[in-house]
Amino acid sequence: MPRRPRIDIVGTYHLVNRGVDRRVTFKDHDDFTYFLNLLCAASKIYGIRVHSYVLMSNHYHLLVETTQENLSKYMKHINASYSIYFNKRHKRTGHLWQGRFKSWFVTNEAYLYALIAYIEYNPIKAHMTQTIGEYKYSSSFAFSGKEEAITCLKESIVFEMYNDIKERLEFIAFAHDERVLDEIKKASNLVVTSIKEKKIDAAKIKSEFHKAKTIQERNHIIVEANRNGVSQHKLATIVGLSQSQINRIVQKNRG
Question: pTM, whole model, 2 decimals?
Answer without folding.
Answer: 0.78
